[in-house]
Design goal:
The chain is mainly β. The protein is built from one helix and nine strands.
């Protein structure tokens, strides 16, 4: 089939293995084998792991809340619908030090 649809109500959410951040693997649930795409819902005080990749570029989009991201040694606060591209060698981490949830779309 040349396309697939995942209604929001049918998305499977789970806590991440390392830090317990709620996320849903959109690409896997849609059968998009060569694309990585996840939604990450960071509750107040939560963070993703600090990491970089060998050859994976990533696009981060803040969908809801205030997005906070560390890129190498710089921290950026982003409004909803703001986007960030991180090349593989950049150390990156999204985190939430606000009082409200933050929802990110991460594509790679």
């Amino acid at each position: 089939m040349p396309f697939s649809v995942l209604p929001a109500a049918d998305a499977f959410w789970r806590p991440s293995n390392q830090l317990g951040v709620d996320n849903t693997d959109l690409a896997a649930q849609l059968g998009a084998g060569s694309l990585g795409a996840r939604l990450w819902r960071l509750r107040p005080g939560q963070a993703s792991t600090r990491h970089r990749h060998v050859d994976q570029h990533e696009l981060y989009v803040v969908l809801e809340g205030t997005g906070r991201i560390r890129l190498d040694d710089e921290v950026h606060a982003l409004d909803p619908l703001s986007a960030v591209h991180a090349s593989p060698d950049v150390v990156r981490q999204v985190f939430n030090d606000t009082d409200a949830d933050a929802l990110w779309l991460v594509v790679g």
